[in-house]
Write a structure and sequence with these properties.
The chain has 18 helices and 16 strands. The protein is α/β, with parallel strands linked by helices and 438 residues long. The protein has two domains: 123 residues, Urease, subunit C, domain 1 (Roll); 257 residues, Metal-dependent hydrolases (TIM Barrel). Strands 5, 6, 7, 8, 9, 10, 11, 12 and 13 form a nine-stranded parallel sheet that branches. Helix 4 crosses helix 5, helix 5 runs parallel beside helix 6 and helix 6 packs parallel to helix 7. The longest helix has 17 residues. The chain is globular, with a radius of gyration of 21 Å. It binds guanine (GUN) and zinc ion. It is an enzyme of class 3 (hydrolase).
Length: 438
């Protein structure tokens, strides 16, 4: 029996790195993905693929959109249960809600249970790859990597490091942060579909000694990812200036410790100076735009035009639980509204690129994820553009990525997800679709 599978639907993806989204999108309205051994073997018109591969088993998602799995480049696994906590901006939100919640992840059983909840939420929303902060506890990173491996999801994650300005019971030290991070890199980085990210939480919660210890690791392991927070909130920025008086600005702290480089993703980047933007661009660092979080925590409005001016790659991210949804569709919808306020027109196609191939290119992973090129892993999401009353009333073409996707970003969420596939296997499916997948 053949293990070839043919998936039928309206297939849309960006095969190349681009900023010409209308020209470089590849679209097959009645399209197909041929999958073999968990990878894309061919992408094209359904009928043509069917003729060439009559032995393939067919899964029919006609009139649904088939898109590469979404890539969420900044979210916090131990904050799943504190989404939507009232009334605070960043620093008091951390003290009042975040740190107490993260303490629970010292319990390995709890972390394992929550890893399952977290990844299920991601998959329900079509997110097949996350770049994830765990808690300070090494066991929480292990729990997440184990759970992601069970689902065969390509995952980037790192143990948070913090040795000051948070409760004693949530602190590591410079030495343990270095040793635990190194052990996690050795155990998980490049193993299966897992990758490690060095994760100093942000400059205020790491002493210079801890930053130096992590900076050594950044130099020693130059292919690991790095993730942290940068320039999110005015009080935070003023605090960093007092804590690191020898650094000319916030970015300079991370520069001093060798953390500004390719594969380094800086969450938020809302209040950067032109000099900081320019240096980010010159050093190949990435900005993660987290719109629902930035609005929820009252942090400010991200400036996409500035990022473009200084050639800083921008990815999109939920920032759960500062962010208020696991849905990358909703995230894109809120990004659109913030861009409106900043006089930047964020098209649905630019948004789709940023959720898929753009993020993969920025992270150096586009040989594996973000597209339907031959040889890429078969990670994809199937969306129903007519999933409810309001979307069913629309008269535009449901198989057009531009029309249907824009409506989905304004009106959609996980209810639009028909199925999510990872490495050629269905890992989430709506109840009513189980027949199609049986
Ligand atoms: N800055 C430092 N830690 C955090 C966090 O957990 N969430 C957000 N949004 N900002 C941070
Ligand atoms: Zn964050």
């Amino acid at each position: 029996m053949s293990d070839k599978q043919l998936i039928r639907g309206a297939v849309h993806h960006f095969p190349v790195a681009t900023n010409d989204y209308h020209t470089d999108i590849e679209q097959f309205r009645d399209g197909g993905l041929l999958i073999e051994a968990g990878k894309i073997a061919a992408t094209g018109e359904y009928q043509a693929l069917r003729v060439l591969h009559p032995d393939a088993s067919v899964t029919d998602y006609r009139d649904c959109l088939i898109l590469p799995g979404f890539i969420d480049t900044h979210l916090h696994f131990p904050q799943t249960e504190i989404i939507a906590k009232y009334g605070e901006q960043l620093l008091t939100w951390l003290d009042n809600y975040t740190f107490p919640a993260e303490q629970q992840f010292s319990d390995e059983d709890y972390a394992t249970k929550m890893a399952d909840v977290f990844l299920t939420e991601c998959l329900k929303n079509g997110t097949t790859t996350g770049m994830v902060y765990t808690s300070v506890h090494k066991a929480s990173a292990e729990a997440l990597f184990r759970a992601a491996s069970e689902r065969n999801m390509l995952t980037i994650a790192g143990k948070v490091c913090m040795d000051r300005h948070c409760p004693d019971w949530l602190q590591d030290t410079a030495a343990t942060a270095q040793a635990d991070s190194a052990a996690l890199i050795d155990a998980w980085h490049g193993k299966g579909r897992n990758y490690y990210a060095l994760t100093p939480r942000f400059a205020p919660t790491s002493t210079p000694a801890q930053m130096a210890a992590l900076g050594e690791l950044a130099q020693q392991y130059d292919d690991v990812f790095i993730q942290t927070h940068l320039s999110e909130n005015h009080d935070e920025i003023a605090w960093v200036n007092t804590l690191y008086p020898d650094c000319e600005d916030y970015l300079a702290v991370y520069e001093k410790y060798h953390m500004v480089r390719k594969r380094a993703v800086f969450g938020h980047c809302i209040h950067l100076s032109d000099s900081e933007w320019q240096r980010m661009g010159a050093q190949g660092a990435i900005a993660a735009f987290c719109p629902t979080s930035n609005l929820f925590l009252g942090s400010g409005l991200f400036d996409m035009a500035k990022a473009n001016q200084f050639n800083v790659p921008v990815t999109l991210a939920t920032d759960v639980g500062g962010g208020t949804s696991f849905s990358m569709l909703k995230t894109l919808g809120e990004a659109y509204k913030i861009c409106q306020l900043k006089q930047y027109k964020l098209s649905a196609l630019e948004g789709l690129y940023k959720l898929t191939q753009g993020a993969a290119v920025s992270l150096g992973l586009s040989d594996k994820i973000g597209n339907f090129n031959t040889g890429s892993d078969a990670d994809f999401v199937v969306l129903n553009p007519r999933f409810d009353t309001l979307t069913s009333l629309r008269v535009d073409d449901p198989t057009s990525a531009e029309d249907a996707l824009f409506a989905l970003t304004m009106l959609g969420d996980d209810r639009a997800t028909v199925a999510t596939w990872v490495a050629g296997k269905p890992v989430y499916q709506k109840q009513e679709c189980s027949d199609a997948l049986a």
